[in-house]
Amino acid sequence: MFTSKIEPQLCIEGNKLHLACAVYTDNIEVKWYKENEQLHKCENILIRIEKYQRMLTIEKTTVADSGNYYVKAGKVEMRIPVTVKDMFRRPLVDVTIMESLDTKFEIETEEENVHVQWFYNGKEITESTERRQISRLQGRVHTLTILQTRLTDSGKYSIKIRAYNKVVELNVKEMPETIKNMSVYDREAFLKAANTGTTTRYNVRVMIVGKQSAGKTCLLRRLMNEEIDDVISTDGINIERRKCHIDIKTGVWHFYKSSQKPQVLSVDQSEKFADCAFWDFAGQKEFYATHQTFLSANAVYLLVVDISEDFKSKTYENMIEKEFDSIGEYIDFWLDNIHCYCTDDKNTPMQCNEDGNLNPPVIIVGTGIDKIHRVCLRYYCKANR
Ligand SMILES: Nc1nc2c(ncn2[C@@H]2O[C@H](COP(=O)(O)OP(=O)(O)OP(=O)(O)O)[C@@H](O)[C@H]2O)c(=O)[nH]1
Ligand SMILES: [Mg+2]
């Protein structure tokens, strides 16, 4: 009966499905079936005869049109498996969002490079504007992004691909009072974190430790380009924040002048710069017991040592109940202390850094060089080489 075969069909919803076969003579009547149900001509179905050709067309397919189709001529039949795939791998869905956040409508189509049209309340969005951006990624992913969504952006958004049309709702909610009342900086940070799902912050802690009157506070003041005339003995710990930022890429340290206010990094800057905080510890032995609590491995240490000091005879009275034979022994005492307390820290990423040196890094800073006579200094340098 049939002189041609119809191959299994695969199409994407919204597209036309066209089945055609040829019969032996032009007076053969054929009937079309989907599973057991006969198909008749209607708005969406076209059945045509052209001499030996017998044709069935479904104008606009849906996923529900998938199944086994049959074309029958008398007792002879031919089976045609048909699969109609969903237009979207990822469909368009309704969105509820807080004002000021970015709204993103995103779909992934089964077909590559299809022509997609976006509509807002029935009106086509023909091109990207500053706040409303249309884009196509990798040929299949199509997005409509509304930056800093406003309450007035609420409404019906639709996407049209050929005859296929899908409408979704955008519901923009007012910003809660608690967020409105935040500082500009905090609100910006909150919105950025809410938009991206993450936020990155870099913090560096520099701990300045050493014996009483070693010159810790003076060193910090000098680093900050500040005067040292009015320096008094530190009581507990003095923390200086937001006066120094470190460029993450270049590693360059930027200090702000004492006359400048502490600098708060903007949200964008905080991903490029680390806020460096200096912890200036008091050197009196009475504070040592509490200092341990603050010694963290996630820090850089500046161990300040007055190199003009006579460690053999003087340190014993001022420091803890320990005598030192040399400045080297005194420095070892501090290094042991720092590394001993810090290795207990569960947040320590590693005990040694890339150079194999113990973490945290300790930089020894010698003060009081001006108190040593030139001749002694030469001798001193030779002896400690
Ligand atoms: N000659 C000289 N004096 C210094 C030097 N560094 C600091 N001083 C003096 O030493 C004294 C103590 O300095 P600070 O910076 O307060 O010492 P500190 O280590 O912070 O002392 P505490 O806070 O009590 O632990 C001050 O009078 C400073 O002027 C230095 O390199 N040479
Ligand atoms: Mg001090």
UniProtKB/TrEMBL annotation:
A GO cellular component annotated for this chain's UniProt record is: cytoplasm
Q: What class of enzyme is it?
A: transferase
Protein location = Cytoplasm
Going by the entry's taxonomy, the superkingdom of the source organism is recorded as: Eukaryota
Kindly give the Pfam families that the UniProt entry links to this protein: I-set, Roc
Q: In the Enzyme Commission scheme, what number(s) does this protein have? A: 2.7.11.1
Q: Which parts of the sequence belong to the Roc domain?
A: 197-385
The answer to whether the entry has keyword Disulfide bond is yes
Which terms does the record give in the GO molecular function aspect?
nucleotide binding; protein serine/threonine kinase activity
List the keywords (alphabetical).
Answer: Cytoplasm, Disulfide bond, Nucleotide-binding, Phosphoprotein, Repeat, Transferase
- Domain (Ig-like) spans 13-83
List the PANTHER family. OBSCURIN LIKE CYTOSKELETAL ADAPTOR 1, SI:DKEY-31G6.6
Protein name in UniProt: TTN
Q: Which organism is it from?
A: Mytilus edulis
Per the UniProt record, the lineage of the source organism begins with: Eukaryota, Metazoa, Spiralia, Lophotrochozoa, Mollusca
